[in-house]
Amino acid sequence: MLDPTWALTRPLLWVALAAMLVLLIVRSVRKDRREYQRFKRYRTTRKRQEMFRKWLLESFLTFAGLTVAVLLLAGQSVGPLLQELTTWPVLRDIRGAIAHDAELVMGVTVGIVIGAITLTLIGVAAARKEQDLPTIGDIRSMLPRNRQELLLGGLLSINAGVFEELLFRLALPALVFGATGSAVAAVLASVLLFGALHAYQGPAGIIGTTIVGALMMGLYIVTGTIVAPIILHALFDLRSLVLLPIAVFGAHRVDGTKHPIAVPFKRVEPPAPAEQP
């Protein structure tokens, strides 16, 4: 790791930050959007599974590789950044409540879990009734359509939960903080870039993932551990790419080896009423 007191540390971190931004932005603009548009045209599950595997491998290599490289350069900024963020009034008060009132924390946690489960069950019931699944952003084509795709959707969810959080909540903020010395810039850069990299999902997807990124950053700061947002991120994606396709559309009942054409999920319109004689 670079010594923060070394005169060349900050210039080198700026170079690393610029290179990282160029890599991620070019990947989003020139690669992700083009590949997703091509993916949406696929009709066979074989082609869809090939793209799922490609995304899984490339995202692992990209995000895991960048995380390791950034932490090797700016790892010493992780602790000082988190320490400064915890002095912000609201976050300081929340952390204080967590440290001094375990019963309150347990009650809030249980309430959030129960609320999330209840809302999910209500949403699943409504979606099954309408045979339609509202989504935030253009992700409908990504929903797995059979058992084989469900497995890949689960792996993609876990991979995103682990490595996107390590990069965007731990490594990238440390790099920005080391280069700029600003905790505000570190938080804003990580949250906004996280949202921008989901441009292939359209404007709603950018807004939705930016909000999610902000919530994950807040959870990391409040808990003081990256494990919490990793778990929440993975569960959130598993809900979208595994639970809902199973609960709403019964994707687990479709064998992709016997049904090579991956039929898109469509809303089933009720039959028209019979005409009176």
Structure commentary:
- The protein is 74% helix and 0% strand.
- By secondary structure, it is mainly α.
- It has one domain (9-253).
- Helix 1 runs antiparallel to helix 2, helix 6 (147-180) runs antiparallel to helix 9 (227-249) and helix 8 packs across helix 9 (227-249).
- The chain is globular.
End-to-end distance: 83 Å
Gyration radius from CA atoms, angstroms? 21 Å
Q: Unreliable segments (pLDDT under 50, ≥5 consecutive)?
A: 267-272
Total domain count: 1
Mean pLDDT: 86
Structural class: mainly alpha
Strand tally is: 0
Write the layout of secondary structure elements.
Elements: H1 9-41, H2 45-74, H3 78-85, H4 89-100, H5 102-130, H6 147-180, H7 183-196, H8 202-223, H9 227-249
Helix pairs in contact: 1-2, 1-6, 2-6, 4-8, 5-9, 6-7, 6-9, 7-8, 8-9
Short synopsis of the structure:
The chain has 277 residues and is an all-alpha fold.
